[in-house]
Amino acid sequence: MSDFMRSGFNDSRVAVLTPRERDVMAYVATGKPNKVIAAELGVSQRTIEAHRARIFQKMKVRNAVELAHRLLAPANRQSL
Fold it and tell me: What are the boundaries of the signal sequence (predicted)?
């Protein structure tokens, strides 16, 4: 489970993400490049690109900055 999920983050859109998409989402939101994410997760860079595209679509964001903002916005936290 990613740190985002352990830290009390709550957004109904996250519920539709697969466990692997949640893992990738945590890396993307912290600014890791696809190449690094792929190496750390032991998959191809193309696989990460596909996960990233699905995450952006499901979370209704256009880029990693919007994703990080959505994840870290105080309104999306259960408790501060």
Answer: none
- Residue 50 is inside which H or E element, if any? helix 45-59
In a domain, 45, yes or no: yes
Give tens-digit pLDDT for 21-56: 999 999 998 899 999 999 999 999 999 999 999 999
How many domains is the chain partitioned into structurally? 1
In the chain, the N- to C-terminal Cα span, in Å, equals: 20
Query: How far are the Cα atoms of 12, 24, 55, 79 from residue 31, in angstroms, in the given order?
Result: 23, 11, 15, 24
pTM listed for this prediction: 0.77
Domain that holds residue 22: 3-75
